[in-house]
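As agreed, record passed on underneath.
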Amino acid sequence: MSTREASAASPPIGSKADLIGWSAKGSKPKDKWRIGTEHEKILFHTDTLAPVPYDGPRGVRALMDGLMTRFGWQPILEGETVIALKSPEGLDRGSVSLEPGGQFELSGATVETIHDVAVETEAHLAEVRSIGEDLGIGMLGLGFTPKYTRAEMPVMPKRRYGVMTKYMPKVGSLGLDMMYRTCTIQVNLDYASEADMVQKLRVSLALQPIAQAIFANSPFTEGKPNGFQSMRGHVWTDTDNARSGNMPFAFERGMSFERYVDYALDVPMYFVYRDGEYIDVAGASFRDFMAGKLADNYTDPRLRGLVATMDDWSDHMTTLFPDVRLKKFLEMRGADGGPAAQIVALPAYWVGLLYDQTALDAAWDLVKGWTTTERDGLRNMVPRLGFKTPFRTGTVLDIARETLKIARAGLANRDRRGADGRDETAALEPLEDIVASGHTLSDRMLTQYHGPWAKNIDHVFRDLRML
């Protein structure tokens, strides 16, 4: 989730046109399109396999201190508390942030190629490994914590999470699991125009369940199989449906930047940020905020006379959680966390599908006839059944194979070569192996669990650790 840093005052919102323009200004010519990859990982103590708290000599803060001291990362503070890191001075390396349960996230820089994503990922993991080895901290790439109960998860001292933790149980049964026990890989991609945004949004919304099946990597809960290919995917079916899901309106005639703004205006807010503090307005609409009505329904005196600004809108847009999120780019949100190869493969998959027009048109031809009922069915069934989810005359595995063929062709058409002379299609090979076998990472872990691991979940931490 996003990290807020105090900055100069933002201009007030004049009208809805300002909000529409905010996303419209993200439009870029194709030669300016970039790739931004985000990935969360589970931290654990290598001796006890316990989760890592924020404080203490072997805590998350110590890990961040090591990154600052040894590699020049700069702190982002709330009061005196380090809640995130920004790039070393003079460099653009993205940011490191903390999710509510201590999940460790890199929000990478915007880069040109999948080869750049691979270099960035390895550099990040190498830095964290360097510090983690000294502290006895390891890292897992999974979609859901395989052992810890919700009560065992540490709580990070980031103030916006306090507002969310209080609100989540009011709007779904699994919101706290989403916050404290899930991990994801996401990729942020650009669009050229409103029409290009709409086509990419529709294709990627329809195919998020397919990506979820390919990247399924969370079959355990509290030490035992949970019956799901993607427990993380299941969690999102009952987190906060007012701000999540596959947005059926996106497929209706007239979809536009304005239509998304209308949706966002009525998604309940969490907070208003002023002077380093998060004012709890959970449940209010941004539409009411713009109309000056927050003080009518909330007693906090700081809300009196408060004027909505563009920074408030930016904050609010980070608290919407649809399967594909529109900000000044499109954010693909369907995949489980995974190992390094998966971190690089996710952007390769979506860049292949969306950044070449021939591939994008082929992907649209694949999904344009799907109904709302069919898309909802995929979203609800794939977390449990994965590739075995039935669809029309076949299964999700059939669709996954077809999408990978399209993605491979799209990357080949880009013809972006790395230092080894290979193009970006090399990053798809782990996914092609998965769909060729029909066995996900979840399937492979379950085979280990019922075989060599002798149903002892501790082997996950030793056999699958990233560092």
Observations:
- The radius of gyration is 21 Å.
- The CA atoms of residues 160 and 248 lie 29 Å apart.
- The chain has a mean pLDDT of 97.
- The longest strand covers residues 35-45.
